[in-house]
Amino acid sequence: MEPQGSVNADPDDSDGEGRCTGWRNWSGFWLLGLCNNFAYVIMLSAAHDILKKQESHNTTASTEATLAVDFQGGNSSNSSRYDCNPVSTAAVLLADILPTLVIKLSVPFVIHNLPYGIRVLFCATMAAASFLLVSLSSAVWISILGVIFASISAGLGELSFLSLTHFYTRDVLGGWGSGTGGAGVAGALLYSVLTQVGLSPQVTVQIMLVVPFAMLISYFAVLVPPPSLPQWKSRRTEYAAVGSEENRGLIDGAEEEEEDRSTPVTEDVSTGPLTFTEKLHIIKGLLKFVLPLGLVYFAEYFINQGLMELLYFPNFFLSHAEQYRWYQTLYQVGVLVSRSSLCCVKIRNLWALSLLQVVNAVLLLFAVRYLFLPSAWLVFAIVLYEGLLGGAAYVNTFYFISKESEDRHREFAMAAASVGDSLGIALAGLAAFPIHRYFCSL
Asked: Which family does it belong to (predicted)?
């Protein structure tokens, strides 16, 4: 049974007001998903360009590999048949994901003490700070700090907004998933267009300060908050207030009935905050979701950061840099399509998606080693399919967690499960380094 004040019970929205509220909430979560990942994509794309302005040619050569998002072509001094960069693109992956991973591993245990309104303000502030640091920085370490701020904003935002879906109908998960999928395509496209028409990377990043503002508008103006949402007060405060009122009522009733006051009044633990033991029990039950999600993302980012750069076809009409960019673009298109598919199809067998993604990774690993793929066109199709699998795994994982979790556990479960994708990505980055070194040494 859904708690009073929660709208996760999928109420009847047949009336016009209900439909309007439903669309506002779906649109609000779509915009929140877009803003949460969009700022991250834009900031990282710009960091590479701005570093080139800050450092000398030699210094830039050593830092491009750690902060670049787009592969910039081969190294002319590299004799490898794979036309490798000196450092794997997995370096940027680890720099981007580790702050997010630390947040997702630790914050779900204490985040209930922080109201949602304050969380959103903090995420928007961190995103804005990342834009300002990267666009105005005069030193490499300041730009790196901007990367860290963007990672913190994205990590805290993801687990907070996934938890927030507990207070709304489950269809908002489709809006959130679609928005996060669109961020990769829209972010890279918008940055490319603005810089292509002549704006400097610094000015382009400063224009993107509208994104954190849009996040605040989406949350505070577009969403229709239910009465049960802890907007500015923590759950602990609410529990204490409710417990105080209930105890006061019991005591008043005891006075009227002249009952023994020595009998202790016990708190109903089913309505209080989750204990640490309960949270560990919930995490144990989430493994059936987190493990396949982590495996999907491990295989996915092992391809993207360990293999994609090495899938080079010299006789193709696109250059190495252009081939790599199209790989990334088609991957993001696949993610967008599948993350927007929750309204049409739901896939309960998450392990099937994981195994299919592992097959992709193994296939492309052997393709890099033995060079048996005839053309980049086939790789284009595979990476599009890779994006479809990854996006489908993400939205279906959180949909079924929301559907199958007990109402009292759902908010924590949604936040805790978000560690699955980040953990898989971090492990993929670590695994990509030796693979990259091995192939580039051939």
From this structure: Belongs to the battenin family.
